[in-house]
């Protein structure tokens, strides 16, 4: 499968969107709106969405798109459910972290083909981190780590911890550490880059939250499943999945037994 053009265009789009996000972030003049369900959204989300969509629509007009921030696309892509190639986009995963100014947010983009993540890009504009990997696309990152061996380093959700989903990790993890980090896409990107060795989310996730991270984790050779140990497919009518466990296969299997 030759996805080199998709990789080049996708990465270019995501990095440009990241630059626009940081302009808005640094100006500190954005307005925070509340979406249905209570989650925040800002003009940075919409600006990044528009930048990436313009690249995709120009270069891949036959593909379909699923994005968190533009429900109108259901009318522009009425046959998305039957499409073989679907781009799945979250222009800012971790908008609350963007608003709070802690830097733990990410742009997430994936191309799913027949429901399987074939290409993924995760970009954290705050520290200019990016990672891209896919079918036939070697993993590329500008901030590699080395957590394939050594002490267990688990990344869990900052917001899920506040909501009491990780009481069993309050005193750490036997033989390792637990870090609270915002944005599931950000955590999965760091995992694939080797900056930690296990990521756990105990809350439901939408496809746009995890598709880009799933792809880079998958093509870095690590494990990825929902909380029941089941594989996750994409472009479903119901876009919600039951949590995430991703990382070194030995640690993934260990956690799934708990």
Labels describing this entry:
about 260 residues, about 35% helix, 8 helices, alpha+beta, 2 domains, 6-stranded mixed sheet, D-Maltodextrin-Binding Protein, domain 2, 5-stranded mixed sheet, 15 strands, Fructose-1,6-Bisphosphatase, Chain A, domain 1
Describe the structure.
This protein is of the alpha+beta class. The chain folds into two domains: 4-141, 2-Layer Sandwich (Fructose-1,6-Bisphosphatase, Chain A, domain 1); 152-256, 3-Layer(aba) Sandwich (D-Maltodextrin-Binding Protein, domain 2), CATH 3.40.190. 33% of the residues lie in helices and 28% in strands. It has eight helices and 15 strands. 45% of the residues are buried.
Write a short abstract of this structure.
33% of the residues lie in helices and 28% in strands. It has 258 residues and is of the alpha+beta class.
Instruction: Compute the separation of the termini in Å.
Output: 38 Å
Order of helices and strands: HEEHEHEHEEEEEHEHEEHEEEH
Q: What would you say the CATH architecture of the largest domain is? A: 2-Layer Sandwich
Which blocks of ≥5 consecutive residues have pLDDT under 50? none
Helix-strand blueprint:
Layout: H1 4-27, E1 33-34, E2 40-41, H2 43-59, E3 64-67, H3 73-76, E4 85-93, H4 95-100, E5 106-113, E6 116-124, E7 129-134, E8 137-141, E9 152-157, H5 158-162, E10 176-181, H6 184-192, E11 198-201, E12 205-206, H7 207-218, E13 223-225, E14 240-241, E15 244-247, H8 249-256
Parallel strand pairs: 3-4, 9-10, 9-11
Antiparallel strand pairs: 1-2, 4-5, 5-6, 6-7, 7-8, 11-15, 12-14, 13-15
């Amino acid at each position: 499968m030759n996805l080199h053009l998709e990789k080049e265009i996708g990465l270019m789009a995501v990095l440009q969107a990241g630059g626009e996000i940081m302009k808005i972030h640094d100006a500190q003049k954005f307005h925070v709106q509340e979406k249905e369900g209570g989650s925040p959204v800002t003009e940075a989300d919409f600006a990044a969405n528009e930048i990436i969509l313009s690249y995709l629509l120009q270069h891949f007009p036959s593909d379909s798109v699923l994005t968190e921030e533009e429900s109108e696309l259901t009318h522009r892509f009425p046959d998305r459910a039957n499409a073989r190639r679907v781009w799945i986009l979250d222009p800012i995963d971790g908008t609350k972290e963007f608003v709070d100014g802690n830097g733990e947010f990410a742009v997430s983009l994936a191309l799913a083909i027949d429901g399987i993540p074939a290409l993924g890009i995760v970009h954290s504009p705050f520290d200019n981190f990016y990672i891209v990997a896919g079918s036939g696309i070697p993993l590329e990152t500008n901030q590699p780590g080395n957590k394939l061996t050594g002490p267990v380093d688990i990344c869990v959700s900052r917001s899920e911890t506040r909501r009491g989903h990780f009481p069993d990790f309050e005193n750490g993890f036997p033989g390792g550490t637990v870090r609270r980090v915002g944005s599931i896409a950000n955590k999965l990107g760091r995992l694939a880059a080797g900056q930690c060795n296990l990521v756990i989310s105990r809350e439901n996730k939408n496809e746009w939250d995890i598709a880009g991270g799933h792809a880079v984790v998958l093509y870095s050779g690590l494990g990825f499943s929902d909380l029941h140990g089941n594989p996750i497919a994409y472009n479903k009518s119901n876009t919600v999945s039951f949590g995430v466990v991703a990382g070194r296969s030995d640690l993934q299997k260990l956690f799934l037994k708990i």
